[in-house]
Prior knowledge:
The complex is a heterodimer of chains A (about 120) and B (about 110).
Chain A: E1 3-7, E2 10-12, E3 18-25, E4 34-39, E5 45-51, E6 58-60, E7 68-73, E8 78-83, E9 92-99, E10 108-111, E11 115-119
Parallel strand pairs in A: 2-11
Antiparallel strand pairs in A: 1-3, 3-8, 4-5, 4-9, 5-6, 7-8, 9-10, 9-11
Chain B: E1 4-7, E2 10-13, E3 19-25, E4 30-31, E5 36-37, E6 39-44, E7 51-55, E8 59-60, E9 68-73, E10 76-81, E11 90-96, E12 108-112
Amino acid sequence: EVQLVESGGGLVQPGGSLRLSCAASGFTFSNYAMSWVRQAPGKGLEWVSGIGGSGDSTYHADSVKGRLTISRDNSKNTLYLQMNSLRAEDTAVYYCAKHGGISYYHPTDYWGQGTLVTVSS
Amino acid sequence: DIVMTQSPDSLAVSLGERATINCKSSQSVLYSSNNKNYLAWYQQKPGQPPKLLIYWASTRESGVPDRFSGSGSGTDFALTISSLQAEDVAVYYCQQYYSTPFTFGPGTKVDIK
């Protein structure tokens, strides 16, 4: 059974940092691209970052480029999102999502339950 | 960026009746080399993560009831629920995964009339 469990969310002041983690199980982690998708309170979905199965290909949305960085450790079956210089508009539930193939040009077929990041003073 | 629009914003349908949601992309998401439309549909219920329903515009995900179907090509797509059930109350999103950033539509809320 595929499981994706996010952790690391919480309350942080503007300008602060957080690192989100997503522990994956139930599939061969390195064979699949992964992404982070966020949802601000009461709003729609925004795809934030994606990474290929081997980790050599990454993408970051313009809204987070230079501040949020996706990475993965295939030996630990874990996906990360390093979040620096956080702003109020980064407040959202962050979902970890698995793609259906080794590149992120596949639909996301499994999602975690999400972790809430709140940026506020 | 490819802009995704959905219509209507919300709809209320009687139990057992048909519901249709439309999705339009600002440019084609049909990849000519494999003739696939890079378009997915997701269902999100309150307090839950999105769930994949349809991918490649018309392929139903495993375990999804056959009352859900996807259609369309190029820039115009639709999700149809042939006979609405109480458990289908949710927000539905389309998403293109043709080019980065992979953009979502704004969502369509489906309720029971």
